Amino acid sequence: MKITFLGTGTSQGVPVIACTCPTCLSEDPKDKRLRSSVLLEDDKTNILIDTGPDFRQQMLRTRVDHLDAILYTHEHRDHVAGLDDVRAYNYIQKKPMELYGEERVLRALHHSFPYIFAERKYPGIPQVNYHKIGLDPFKINSTVIIPIRALHYRLPVLGYRVGDFAYLTDTNSISPEELNKIRGVGHFAICALRKKEHISHYNLEQALAVIREVGPGQAYLTHVSHMMEPTAILEPELPENVRFAFDMQSIEI
Ligand SMILES: [Zn+2]
Ligand SMILES: [Zn+2]
Ligand SMILES: [Zn+2]
């Protein structure tokens, strides 16, 4: 399976509009972060996690020629705002897009995109099938998906484990039982917003503590804010098996 980080930035992306901080002014491509999303590709199946505001640009720049399913972590705008653009795949694939997420996320999508879920549909709007999921593992074609419960302040969110890869964003709390689902995983992506503490996201120190508990082969920090110093400055401080994820980074697992 091939994993591609399509975006690794927090809700505003990096650089932030009109900001002149050192990270926003950095010319290092690793400091240019679209909103967080990852693509999981195996021989037959392409699965995306989240459709943020940069979904269209991400599909174009990574040349994703087909998409079988979308998994949602939670309903915040930086994870769902691009849903309207799945129309492109509806036209080409001549079928609805298969969406997977919790019931609460479906309700939020109904609210944000009422026309998509309307009984009498306007022609040309996105076509979707929504699959309500809980914490039980499920399959998309032959790929097994294991949902992982975490908390984003008080909001329950889902991370996902697929084979030897685990993805956990927008959280600042996870129970030991849920961590058991990912202990010793080969590749582990986790949010690390900034150095300073935050009410609903792990900061760098907290993310490193979770990584030590999980004990992955390699960890990738994602959902990064411009308040994190430039990657080239911070990376030497990180443990050997931890790196910042960067946009368009691909790993084979
Ligand atoms: Zn987010
Ligand atoms: Zn900035
Ligand atoms: Zn969020």
Descriptive report:
The chain is built from 9 helices and 14 strands. The chain has 253 residues and is an alpha/beta fold. The chain has a single domain, classed as Metallo-beta-lactamase, Chain A (4-Layer Sandwich), CATH 3.60.15. The strands form 2 sheets. Strands 6-5-4-3-2-1-14 form a 7-stranded mixed sheet. A 7-stranded mixed sheet has the order 7-8-9-10-11-12-13, with helices on one face. Strand 11, helix 8 and strand 12 (218-222) form a beta-alpha-beta unit. The radius of gyration is 17 Å and the shape is globular. Bound molecules: zinc ion (3 copies).
Question: Could you outline the blueprint of secondary structure elements for this entry?
Answer:
Blueprint lengths: L1 E6 L14 H4 L11 E5 L4 E4 L5 H7 L7 E3 L5 H4 L6 H7 L3 E5 L1 H10 L1 H4 L10 E5 L5 E3 L2 E10 L2 E8 L2 E4 L7 H4 L7 E5 L12 H11 L3 E5 L8 H4 L7 E3 L5 E3 L1
Parallel strand pairs: 3-4, 4-5, 5-6, 10-11, 11-12, 12-13
Antiparallel strand pairs: 1-2, 1-14, 2-3, 7-8, 8-9, 9-10
Distance between the termini: 5 Å
Rg over C-alpha atoms, rounded to the nearest angstrom: 17 Å
Strand content: 25-35%
Overall number of domains: 1
> H/E element string?
EHEEHEHHEHHEEEEEHEHEHEE
List ligands, each type once. zinc ion
CATH topology: Metallo-beta-lactamase, Chain A
Q: What percentage of residues falls in helices of 4 or more residues?
A: 10-25%
Topology, number of strands: 14
